[in-house]
Each structure stands twice: as structure tokens, then as C-alpha cells.
Specification:
Order of helices and strands: EHHEEHEHHEH
Shape: elongated
Strand content: 15-25%
CATH class of the largest domain: Mainly Alpha
Structural class: alpha+beta
Number of strands: 5
Number of domains: 2
CATH topology of the largest domain: Arc Repressor Mutant, subunit A
Distance between the termini: 44 Å
Largest sheet: 3 strands, antiparallel
Helix content: 25-40%
Number of helices: 6
Radius of gyration: 19 Å
CATH superfamily of the largest domain: Ribosomal protein L11/L12, C-terminal domain
Strand order of the largest sheet: 1-2-3
CATH architecture of the largest domain: Orthogonal Bundle
């Protein structure tokens, strides 16, 4: 019988305390071993809440840890070092993101994005930038999106 435990943990800082300990304790597996795997897999997401799924086989006491990725908006905020996006996006800008960071986020989220190519996935990230009031390379994210479509960033997207 498989038990699936869904958690939201701070990247790289899971502990045997709540929510992990109480969820895994009754199952009888080595909690510290699970914590170690989670922390290793989430260390790149320090400072962000990360969705984690722990799949436990009660009969063999084996487990598998699957890590989700934080929402695109959280990744953008983390890259910019800001707490929130702009509340007045047309007039107030929350920050400026380098296009290389757009690509980095698109690659991190590639399994969760709808686009079939890196170019299409980058355009999805640019849409989030626009809605958060974030410029890209000093330009409006919509303008960068048009430039991506016209091929201006094809070299970076390979």
C-alpha cells in the first residue's frame, strides 16, 4: 500500500518537525533520511516554499521524494530579491529582470509550462513578468515578447 504525503516546505530547510514528522511518524520510516533527501533536492530553492510529494510504500518502508517547483511569480521575485510584484503595473515597476534569468526560470519550470519549445516557454515567463510589473532588460515585457517572436533572442534560446 502506498501513502502519498503532500507538503509545502522551505527550500533546503525541511526538518523532522511539522509538517513532515507528524505525517511520516505513524508510517514508521526513517524521517531523518527523508529530510536529508528533501533538503538535497530543494537546496536550490532556499527562501522559497516548495511543493514536495513523499510516496511511501508501507510494506517495504521505501520512499520516493518528488519535488515540484515554486510558482513562476515566486521564482521571478526570488531572482529580483523583491517581496512582491507591482500593484500598479502600468505605471509602477517592481524590478528589471535579465533575459538570461527568464530562460533560467523557463528551464526550471519546463515541465509545468504549456509551450512546446523554450521560446514559447520564455514567452510564458515574460507574460508573468508583465503582470507583475517587471521589465526585462530595461524594456516592457510585452515588447521583449514581440522581439522573441521576431527572432531577436533566438541565439540565447538555443
Amino acid at each position: 500500500m502506498l501513502d502519498i504525503i503532500n507538503l509545502l516546505v522551505e527550500g533546503g530547510e525541511a526538518s523532522a518537525g511539522p509538517p513532515l514528522g507528524p505525517a511520516l511518524g505513524p508510517i514508521g520510516i526513517n524521517i531523518m533520511e527523508v529530510v536529508g533527501v528533501i533538503n538535497k533536492k530543494t537546496e536550490g530553492y532556499k527562501g522559497m516554499k516548495v511543493p514536495v510529494k513523499v510516496i511511501v510504500d508501507r510494506s517495504t518502508k521505501s520512499f520516493e521524494v518528488k519535488i515540484g517547483t515554486p510558482p513562476v511569480s515566486s521564482l521571478i521575485k526570488n531572482e529580483l530579491g523583491i517581496e512582491k510584484g507591482s500593484s500598479a503595473t502600468p505605471t509602477e515597476k517592481a524590478g528589471d529582470l535579465e533575459f538570461e534569468k527568464v530562460i533560467k526560470i523557463a528551464k526550471l519550470k519546463e515541465d509545468a509550462l504549456m509551450g512546446k519549445t523554450l521560446k514559447k516557454k520564455a514567452k510564458e515567463i515574460l507574460g508573468s513578468c508583465f503582470s507583475m510589473g517587471v521589465t526585462v532588460d530595461g524594456k516592457d515585457a510585452r515588447d521583449v515578447e514581440k522581439e522573441v517572436e521576431q527572432g531577436a533572442y533566438d541565439k540565447a534560446l538555443q
